[in-house]
Design goal:
The complex is a heterodimer of chains A (551) and B (347). Chain A is an all-alpha fold and 551 residues long. Helix content of chain A is 75%, strand content 3%. The chains are: A mainly alpha (551), B alpha+beta (347).
């Protein structure tokens, strides 16, 4: 009798929750868990702390740790120093060409960092345009290789996170708060320090956290421009690559180190913002005009930052139309670079689309269903689901790559070299964008709409598909575009999981740059950037005028 | 159209009983109101009837049918939600046709019935509009037509007027009453607004803390409140501390009446409009602290020498005392009600 009752109450949404949890356990918790376990195992299978002792004891690995920490901290500090003033200037003052500046900021964020890295090499590398030009007039440029180049790329690439979070917060401060300060006799710098800054500090730290975690996880940049400069993702990657017959535990230990740092950064940020408050702005602050002199200074600052940030993209696009010989671009223009794509990396373009489209379809459907159970069918199980979906947030792509391949390279489930393993990696890494945007739309959608449909005689599942799904679809798609853009540009886990038949554009670009084939790399990068731009334009159409990223 | 029987219904949320054992019978064709402050369990009870919540204990019957295990979409109730819940991606016509399509009504009959329902709520000329183009009152009419068109055996209304402005609220409640009479449909109406409940209902159940305090006609609950809670929730009333001594109730040092109750503290209530200027059967003198002219009369606040503040409602025909003056007021013994320490009425 009791059992009968249980099964009658077991609805479609229970199935969604159960299946989601089961799949996540197989493709996320198990791979990551076994990688962690392996890091504590010796070759004969007994428990050991040797891997961690090596990690902290050997100079080679310890350097990877300390380098990662200082390079990412420095990059985050510079990114914050660029992002906060930009946000303040662009939200509070009338500056010429604001929509253009904002668009360029987003574009510089969403193109993959390794393309930026590569074009800095094209500009400032040994055979770079600027290096050559300077040499011609007798000036030797300082080297771009090593930590200096990595910090340059990270700061310019990740400051948009700080900018986006901070400007959103600045716009949500109600005018009356600053007016109240004025009214109490506090203005200017004191007002900024005592009212405005504390109110946007949570947002600044959230942006800085994003910048730090992205820098920490980035694999392409240090690999291309670091020239042997040791960082954790690189160390984990090479450990895994050398390890084929060797020591799987060391890659696990390094991965655990990466995850621990991300997690600590996350908790540090939460701790800094332990006093929470919410703001809802009825009247956003006034946008004021600056006196001419200051206006010119402010505009110059903004244009300089976005100009330098977007420069790599422009350089890549232009050079893709120049004939190239190895790493040297010639002065002749033509479509030769594009022609060679078919010969040299057949399938890369098609693979990128094929894999990403399958991944995005899964993300949209699964993301919508999961966000529904998380927001509307709250229970212990859906809370577990919610927390599980946060895990990929602290997992760098390299770690997910290593975890998946070490988990699924032997029976019962052999996925090594398949398209499936890449799709799994994309879905678990990027689904959170879709889930988060779907959840926020669902939260703002009144549950009584669906109840009205049920009340009128349409079953609960049919009501979801006929009323709720159409109403949240636009919002879900807006989040899906972000999942899509980051998926087509994914390098750090693909580089570990790909196979000859599943090579993607980012991997092709990376390997062409490594083998000094700059022309082909430029052509592929241009295609990738164009797809990104078109996708963002689509996102803007979907998100509507008020919520668009590009204004 | 059917009678609704609620037997000992309990609904708990995380151990807290939102509905703590309610039994009610709603007669066929009746407009029955669940009235109470927010958190009293009235909406929870309504949602149990709609099938959105499964009760932990007790039974619900529509007519003779036990509906405990009938899922929400098969209960054939028409619900009108507080925020209308008009589907924003469908036109007015599509909204009203939605429930009929789910019942496989199509073609000519669908057209006819939707048109009829829209005419009923005076929305026929706006049938192709999208909800975003409608005012709150118009959306409310669409929601009403959508609920009525499926010919539900029970109409459920959850604070349907609370999002409308004051003037429209009065217009719509008259409209709802007219339609309910016309269709003769059994209706359960939830509100926290006692004036609305008094105006619209055949009978009212006053709820507090998940229980029903009193069931009766609007006049009954207004004039004969059976508990102190009902007396203070419906309308305005003064609560005066009193004492029972040897079967004699005393308030303001004067004897009110005899009751069959043991000695102890009690509360005597008297409505402001029952107090007049000058001596009465029970009289008190006090300091006039405030006199507020409110159009239909004047509300006077009087402070007695014992420090008790009493509200008096004087009609326009009477010249109100001036603020700061001492004045004497009185009321009839029969106008006062007496409640014991547990809030029960003492007779």
């Amino acid at each position: 009798m009791e059992r009968l009752k249980f099964w009658r109450k077991w609805t479609f949404w229970h199935w969604v929750t159960a299946v989601s949890l089961l799949l996540l356990a197989i493709v996320l918790l198990y791979p990551v868990g076994q990688l962690l376990v392996k890091s504590f195992l010796a070759k004969d299978g007994s428990f050991t702390l040797k891997n961690y002792a090596t990690f902290l004891g050997k100079r080679y690995y310890r350097l990877a740790l300390t380098n990662s920490l200082w390079v990412c901290t420095a990059s985050t500090a510079i990114a914050t120093a660029l992002g906060v003033p930009m946000a303040f200037l662009l939200t509070r003052y009338k500056l010429p060409g604001k929509p253009l500046i904002r668009t360029l900021i987003i574009l510089s964020l969403l193109s993959p960092p390794f393309i930026g890295t590569y074009s800095w090499i094209v500009l400032l590398g040994r055979a770079g345009f600027i290096t050559k030009a300077m040499e011609a007039i007798g000036i030797t440029m300082p080297t771009i290789y090593g930590p200096r180049g990595i910090i340059l790329v990270f700061s310019l690439h990740f400051f948009p996170y700080v900018y986006l979070f901070t400007s959103a917060a600045l716009q949500s401060i109600d005018r009356s708060l600053e007016e109240a300060a004025d009214n109490l006799g506090v203005s200017g710098w004191t007002r900024f320090r005592t009212i405005t800054l504390p109110l946007v500090l949570p947002a600044i730290s959230a942006g800085a956290l994003m910048a730090f975690m992205s820098a920490l996880a980035d694999f392409g940049t240090p690999q291309l421009i670091g020239e042997g400069f040791q960082l954790l993702p690189i160390a984990a990657y090479s450990e895994y690559m050398n390890e084929i017959g060797g020591n799987p535990g060391m890659a696990g230990a390094l991965s655990t180190g990466l995850v621990l740092i991300s997690t600590l950064a996350l908790f540090l940020q939460r701790w800094v913002n332990r006093r929470t408050f919410t703001m809802s702005s009825l009247r956003p602050p006034i946008v004021v005009d600056l006196p001419l002199g200051r206006k010119i200074l402010a505009s110059a600052f903004c244009y300089l930052v976005v100009g330098v940030a977007i420069l790599p993209q422009v350089v890549v696009m232009i050079s893709s139309f120049r004939k190239a010989k190895g790493p040297i671009f010639l002065d002749e223009f033509g479509l030769d670079n594009y022609m060679t794509i078919v010969d040299r990396v057949p399938g890369a373009v098609a693979n990128t689309f094929r894999l990403s489209i399958v991944a995005i379809v899964i993300m949209v459907i699964a993301g919508l269903l999961m966000s529904y159970v998380i927001t509307r069918r709250r229970s212990v199980a859906t809370a577990v689901l919610d927390v599980t979906l946060l895990i990929p947030y602290v997992l760098p792509g390299t770690v997910i790559g290593i975890a998946l391949i070490t988990a699924f390279n032997r029976p019962p489930l052999v996925l090594t070299g398949t398209a499936t393993i890449l799709i799994i990696s994309y879905v678990i890494r990027k689904i959170s964008y879709t889930v988060r945007s779907a959840s926020s739309v669902l939260t703002s959608l009144d549950p009584s709409l669906e109840e009205a449909s049920i009340n009128l005689g349409v079953g609960p599942v049919a009501s979801f598909f006929r009323v709720t799904a159409p109403l949240v679809f636009k919002g879900v798609m807006a989040g899906a575009v972000l999942s899509w853009v980051t998926t087509i540009n994914e390098l750090s886990s693909t580089i570990i999981l790909y196979h000859a038949g599943t090579i993607t554009m980012p991997v092709a670009i990376y390997s062409q740059v490594i083998s000094d084939n700059f022309g082909l790399a430029a052509a592929l990068s241009t295609i990738l950037t164009l797809v990104t731009v078109i996708s963002l334009w689509l996102f803007n159409r979907l998100a509507g005028k008020d919520n668009g990223l590009l204004t | 159209m059917s009678k609704v029987t609620i037997e000992g219904v309990v609904k708990r949320f995380e151990g807290h009983a939102a509905v703590a054992g309610v039994s009610l019978t709603v007669e066929s064709g009746e407009l029955f109101t669940l009235l109470g402050p927010s958190g009293c369990g009235k909406t929870t009870l309504l949602r149990v009837l709609a099938g959105f919540y499964q009760q932990d204990e007790g039974n619900v019957r529509f007519g003779d049918q036990l509906v405990n295990d009938v899922p929400a979409h098969k209960r054939n109730t028409g619900m009108v939600f507080q925020n209308y819940a008009v589907f924003p991606h469908m036109t007015v016509f599509e909204n009203v046709a939605y429930g009929l399509k789910a019942r496989k009504v199509g073609g000519q009959e669908l057209q006819r019935r939707v048109t009829e329902a829209l005419e009923m709520v005076k929305m026929a000329n706006l049938r192709d509009r999208m909800p975003a183009q409608l005012s709150g009152g118009q959306q409310q009419r669409v929601a009403l037509a959508r609920a009525l068109v499926i010919q539900p055996q029970l109409l459920l209304m959850d604070e349907p007027l609370s999002n409308l402005d004051a003037k429209l609220r009065i217009e719509m409640r008259t409209e709802i009453r007219r339609l309910q009479r016309q269709y003769g449909i059994t209706t359960i109406y939830v509100t926290h607004d006692q004036e609305e409940a008094l105006a619209i209902s055949d009978r009212i159940a006053v709820m507090n803390n998940g229980r029903v305090e009193q069931v009766g006609s609007p006049r009954d609950v207004y004039f004969n409140p059976q508990t102190l809670f009902v007396a203070s929730f419906i309308g305005t009333t003064n609560l005066l501390p009193g004492r029972v001594q040897g079967g004699q109730v005393r308030v303001l040092d004067q004897a009110v009446r005899e009751v069959a109750a043991p000695d102890g503290d009690c509360t005597v209530t008297i409505r402001p409009e029952k107090i007049t200027l000058g001596q009465g059967e029970i009289s008190f003198t006090g300091h006039v602290e405030e006199a507020l002219f409110v159009g239909s009369g004047t509300t006077v606040f009087v402070r007695t020498p014992e420090g008790k503040r009493i509200e008096v409602r004087l009609p326009n025909e009477v010249e109100p005392p001036r603020v700061g003056d001492q004045a004497t007021f009185g009321f009839r013994r029969s106008a006062a009600a007496v409640y014991g320490a547990q809030g029960e009425v003492l007779a």
